[in-house]
Amino acid sequence: MGNQRSAIVVGGGIIGATSAYALARRGWRVQLIDREAQAAQGASLGNGRQLSYSHTNALASPAILREIPRLVLGCDEAFKLRLKLDRAFLSWILQFLGNCTSAANRKNTLETLELADRSRAAMEQLLEQHPIEFERRQTGKLVLLRSQAELNAARASLEMKRLAGLVQAMLSYQEACFLEPALEQAREIFLGALYAPGDETGNCAEFARNLIALCEEQFGVEFHTLSRVIGVNRKCGRSVVVLDSGEERQADLVVMANGHAINQFLEPLGHRLPIQPMKGYSFTAPVGNWAPRVSVTDQRRRIVFTSLGDRVLVAGIAELGTSDTRVDQLRLQSVIAAARASLPEAAVYSEADSGWAGLRPMTPNSRPITCMLEPGIAVNAGHGMLGWTLAMGSAEKLCEVVESAT
Ligand SMILES: Cc1cc2nc3c(=O)[nH]c(=O)nc-3n(C[C@H](O)[C@H](O)[C@H](O)COP(=O)(O)OP(=O)(O)OC[C@H]3O[C@@H](n4cnc5c(N)ncnc54)[C@H](O)[C@@H]3O)c2cc1C
């Protein structure tokens, strides 16, 4: 006990929960701290639930670059770019534009694919040892392709990932409908679909809560809720976290895993990470006559359908330039309309719930930042659109960077 290394993980979302588990499993004495009354109340709460191990394509691409004028003018219901005169935001946008080349997109997509693969392996290992409940469904994932250009891009992406060892298949319209009969009800014809049989879904928030409970019971992790961190610093060779109660907690290591809010603590230390919130929405509705069992992504409309059994969850919208977490009714209605236009019989849309909005912690290259910032202070953040998918692998990577720094 005397020589046991100690860590404080700030943020009890999916990234903080998996970071705490990975450290505790390696013998660290861990305190996990969150400002809310329970875990996973931020972006990890109402997300699309996709364990999207194959669909790791970076957002910045030559295709999105061509769309930028439309996004800025607000012509795309599903993707909004609100420009604001903020240095950090504008610098993020410039870095994003710099990642819109084919070469950068390829690099970012493949590096994320590698991390996703690591996540899948770490998840399997965890579940073999501890059968955690989280509504896991091994459904596979279909990405609908509506135009020749989308088909060509998907073929290129498939080939790139095949060379990296990934199994995905290109299906014709008939093959996709055979696999998922609900697609026959699609209002607009699609030309084909990309199928990833190994992709899964699961309740991210339930997983985070159950993983933290396991950490408390089996690894002695202390989880402190309703504890808002207001500062992080170093004193006499120790890392210090200051809470809003005035209390200070010390450890050998502090891991900042508090999602999009991370920079407010790093700036006083002289650091700024390229992480911006990207707002998204989700809603659930009772299943309709033709609810998909396989996860379906409608790339054109930027929405995903996830089966929850007796309900269907739909997630979508990417909005850069706001950090307001309130559900804007107009935006929510636009996601419902997009889902209805895509698969009209998938859900009883008239009985949709009141919706949810969350902020994805987004980096310009769609790759998370997992590193030592300075001695005693590490970061695991910026998981963007794929935090649930990448959480387990990022936590492994965190331990690696921490170990190599000590
Ligand atoms: C609409 C939508 C759909 C998505 N769909 C998917 C999907 O299908 N698959 C996928 O892989 N990913 C998806 N994502 C992305 C994923 O949800 C995020 O990447 C992930 O949840 C980020 O986790 P996090 O732990 O970094 O952040 P969060 O979950 O936001 O956790 C941060 C935590 O830090 C705490 N915190 C913040 N500040 C403080 C403070 N000062 N003191 C103490 N605690 C603090 C917060 O309370 C919170 O619990 C989606 C996101 C959205 C918005």
What's the topology here?
Elements: E1 6-10, H1 14-25, E2 29-33, E3 50-51, H2 62-72, E4 79-81, H3 87-98, H4 102-129, E5 141-145, H5 148-163, E6 169-172, H6 173-179, E7 192-196, E8 200-201, H7 204-219, E9 222-224, E10 229-235, E11 238-243, E12 248-251, E13 253-256, H8 263-266, E14 276-286, E15 295-298, E16 303-307, E17 311-320, H9 329-342, E18 356-362, E19 369-374, E20 377-381, H10 387-405
Parallel strand pairs: 1-2, 1-13, 2-9, 4-17, 5-15, 13-20
Antiparallel strand pairs: 3-8, 5-7, 6-7, 10-11, 11-12, 14-17, 14-18, 15-16, 16-17, 19-20
Helix pairs in contact: 1-7, 1-10, 4-10
Bound molecules: flavin-adenine dinucleotide (FAD).
Explained architecture:
This protein is of the alpha/beta class and 406 residues long. The chain has a single domain, classed as D-Amino Acid Oxidase, subunit A, domain 2 (D-Amino Acid Oxidase, Chain A, domain 2). The protein is 34% helix and 25% strand. The protein is built from ten helices and 20 strands. The strands form four sheets. Strands 4, 5, 6, 7, 14, 15, 16, 17 and 18 form a nine-stranded mixed beta sheet that branches. Strands 9-2-1-13-20-19 form a six-stranded mixed beta sheet, with helices on one face. Strand 16 and strand 17 (311-320) form a beta hairpin. Helix 1 runs parallel beside helix 7 (204-219), helix 1 (14-25) crosses helix 10 and helix 4 (102-129) packs across helix 10 (387-405). The longest helix has 28 residues, at 102-129. It is globular and about 65 Å long. The structure holds flavin-adenine dinucleotide.
